[in-house]
Specification:
Layout (H helix, E strand, L loop, with lengths): L1 H14 L4 H8 L3 H9 L6 H11 L3 H4 L6 H15 L14 H16 L3 H20 L6 H21 L3 H15 L5 H18 L2 H13 L7 H20 L3 H15 L5 E3 L2 E3 L1 H15 L4 H10 L8 H17 L3 H14 L1 H5 L2 H13 L4 H11 L3
Antiparallel strand pairs: 1-2
Helix pairs in contact: 1-3, 2-3, 2-4, 6-8, 7-8, 7-9, 8-9, 9-10, 9-11, 10-11, 11-12, 11-13, 12-13, 13-14, 13-15, 14-15, 15-16, 15-17, 16-17, 17-18, 17-20, 18-20, 20-21
Length: about 400
């Protein structure tokens, strides 16, 4: 079986015009591992297979038909995440790894979140979060800010799988952990980044007016944009507020926040700050999201952006995938289901795990299938993959 898996990996890699080094880098695995898998010398474990499949833009079962599925692995890990944060405010045993390793592992986990590699995250999240909490409880003085930041980053990584896989109560508890950790230090950037994530609670409940109000209040006490870090953090918070305001039906507020985010992005290079991508490209992606959220008369604006521009590889895979999902919805609004399906196929190339767990994607593929405005066999296969049938 290992040889067959390796052949499938190699064939898919060549079809994507990737080198083995490209694949190793995108999958966050070693080059020797990629080479050994392709030769059939090693059989990739579930986590490695998921990582490679995500980098190749396919579901892991396309490489190994016997693969049990990311969703099953994620759901199996959720109780351990829940147990880890039970009594998070209570002092606990010392961390199982040294601080330097904890920093490195947390950075790697943030990378996995941005790459939408949820199976890998689920495997690592409980121990990473437990060690981050232990470190915060044992730290004081000048190092407390870093310790709080590590807890926020670890909890946000765990929240990625909880939120995406529908465990919204657990997601809300993880956000409580983030808020508790951020309160340990006087870092307005960190608190603003937590407010950004907290918006998920309102989005999940479709409590858009309340979410809009909460984000406006966070902006009122947000950081002054006097450093690259604070400018990017504030800009990201304006982007998130724009989307929530749009879903609340407040077009003026949505575009006002979008324009402020655009202003803050001027002169900044696209990059990751406190776990969130911000820059001119992210603002464009959010312009599409705002337009689609407002609907009707605003859809043309989303399609105009997509006709002239699309996110490149410098943008995290999850955000690239999100862009194409939003553009697909715009095409559905405008009565073009065939082009919408093309966009969903593009989204799958960038972050298949993200697309598969996206409720709008599943719903919209079902609509396209009912309209039957795409090749029947391909559309049916996609619908079965995403769970729309």
């Amino acid at each position: 079986m290992a040889e067959h898996i390796g052949q499938r990996i190699a064939a898919r890699r060549r079809a994507r015009r990737m080198t083995q080094a490209d694949l190793a880098r995108e999958a966050h695995v070693s080059l020797p591992m990629v080479k050994a898998c392709e030769r059939g010398v090693r059989s990739p474990g579930p986590s490695t297979l998921e990582a490679i499949a995500s980098a190749l833009g396919v579901e892991a079962s396309r490489l190994d038909p016997a693969f049990a599925g990311t969703g099953r692995r994620v759901h199996a890990a959720l109780p351990a995440i829940s147990a880890t944060i039970a009594g998070y405010e209570l002092t606990r045993e010392s961390a199982g790894r040294p601080l330097r390793q904890l920093r490195s592992d947390t950075d790697a986990a943030v990378g996995l979140r941005l790459a939408a590699q949820y199976g890998l995250i689920a495997q690592q999240a409980p121990s990473l979060l437990g060690d981050a909490l232990a470190h915060l409880h044992s730290t004081s003085g000048a190092h407390i800010e870093e310790a709080a930041g590590l807890v926020v980053a670890a909890a946000r990584t765990a929240d990625a799988v909880a939120y995406k896989f529908g465990a919204h109560d657990l997601s809300a508890r993880l956000i409580d952990v983030m808020r508790w950790a951020a309160a340990h230090c006087e870092d307005p950037d960190l608190n603003a980044s937590v407010a950004y994530v907290r918006a998920e609670t309102f989005l999940a409940a479709r409590a858009y007016p309340a979410g809009h109000l909460a984000l406006e209040q966070a902006l009122d006490v947000g950081p002054a944009p006097n450093t690259v870090r604070s400018t990017a953090t504030l800009g990201a918070l304006h982007m998130r507020t724009a989307v929530v305001a749009a879903r609340a039906g407040s077009a003026d507020a949505a575009y006002s926040h979008l324009n402020e985010a655009r202003r803050l992005a001027q002169g900044l290079r696209e990059g990751i700050c406190l776990g969130t991508s911000f820059g001119p490209s992210s603002v464009r992606i959010h312009e599409v999201a705002v337009s689609v959220s407002l609907g009707r008369d605003h859809i043309g604006r989303a399609l105009d952006v997509a006709r002239k521009w699309s996110p490149g590889p410098g943008i995290p895979a999850e955000r690239r995938s999100g862009f194409w999902i939003e553009v697909a919805r715009a095409h559905l609004w405008s009565g073009n289901p065939a082009e919408a399906f093309n966009c969903f196929q593009e989204a799958r190339k960038h972050a298949p795990q993200h697309v598969r767990e996206h409720p709008w994607a599943r719903e919209d593929i079902g609509k396209i299938r009912r309209l039957k405005r795409a090749p029947a066999e391909t559309l049916t296969s996609y619908a079965e993959w995403i769970g729309a049938v």
